[in-house]
Write a structure and sequence with these properties.
Shape: rod-shaped
Number of domains: 1
Largest sheet: none
Structural class: mainly alpha
Radius of gyration: 33 Å
Strand content: under 5%
Number of strands: 0
Order of helices and strands: HHH
Amino acid sequence: MEESDKLIRMLKEQKGLLDVDVSKDEAHIEEMTNYIQTKHNGEMERWPYQRNCVQIGYRSRQFITDCTTICKQIVEWRKDLVPLQPPQRHERILYEFLKCTDENIKQIEDVLKDFAQQYSNLLHVSNILLLYLSVF
């Protein structure tokens, strides 16, 4: 906008020095300035919505990545447990199997707690966006 003001000032100087009619040029510059300002204001109004969409997209992608990681980890834990399943009922082997199972269950619970928190955060951000959209 400073550029348009500067251009109009220069046109007025030109008018004073050369005694030429610059009214059409001034009107055109003001019209273009108003058009640019209107477009700029529209973009500024859309920015919060666009920012929220990008954040939701990023968090959704992270959520999907976490889902994939959890599924792969569960498959790996299962692979780790299969050889530990006792073919016979030896007490020591059964104890080691249960100990390993308890550790894996604890790890799964911890991962799922983090996962549930991320899912909750994603839903919260999505709800905020929906609320924002309902206002506009």
